[in-house]
Amino acid sequence: LSAHVDTLGLMVKAINSDGSLSFTPLGGPILATYDGEYCTVHTRRGNKYTGTILSTSPSSHVYSDANTKTRNQDTMYVRLDEVVYSKKDTLALGIENGDFISIDPKFELTKSGYIKTRFLDDKASVFILLEILRYLKENNITPSASLEIIFSTYEEVGHGAANIPELDELLAIDMGCIGLTLSCTEEMVSICAKDSGGPYDYDMITSLINIAKERELNYAVDIYPYYGSDGTAALRAGNDIKCALIGAGIQASHGMERTHLKGIINTFELLKAYITK
Known about the structure:
Radius of gyration: 21 Å
Number of helices: 5
């Protein structure tokens, strides 16, 4: 079982003449959704400085294109919450090119059961794997096969779970896509039949579908158009294994993401049944 813990957010690309920061994205965030977000700069010395991500036309009272300006890494910057007016001022704080910038996740669990936060891809699945381990331990349950738990750190880079122990099959626990022709909702567990890397193992997918039906879980089977998983990386690395992919439905991926507790529970129940069948 594999879930990924990526390095997502931004990195300092340059310190501007006025002391603000230019940045480059890490992973594949939708940068327009970062406009106005609070962030933290982490220096190599261990210091932390807060700031805000803004458009280079941040005021409607000053800039005629404040509402229409395209938001990307060339038209956005980080305003530090420090008294800085020059590159020298910012350098004196110990901030340098290559420092990481994390984004305030703004976690919220609503009364209606929605989980709103950034980076549910793939922190939601990491949570599910940890809960699976808790469930097995507290109930003294032995899985039906030898089980390896993998938390990969380079899925966004592209090689994720490429370097893995000797396995027969890999089940990637990732996120379920929502939108366009896809049938998944936030309350469902999504079973991916095919992504940009090609189809997943027929027998594994069939087994997952049958389990979902038998347990009367709320599920969808979908094809993800622009997607790669730990399973994709493992196969491309030449591992001779079977791979499948499931995950809770997550809306607005790589933006301001949202899922539902029911989607988390359905994914947990499908995974639990699969490893104990």
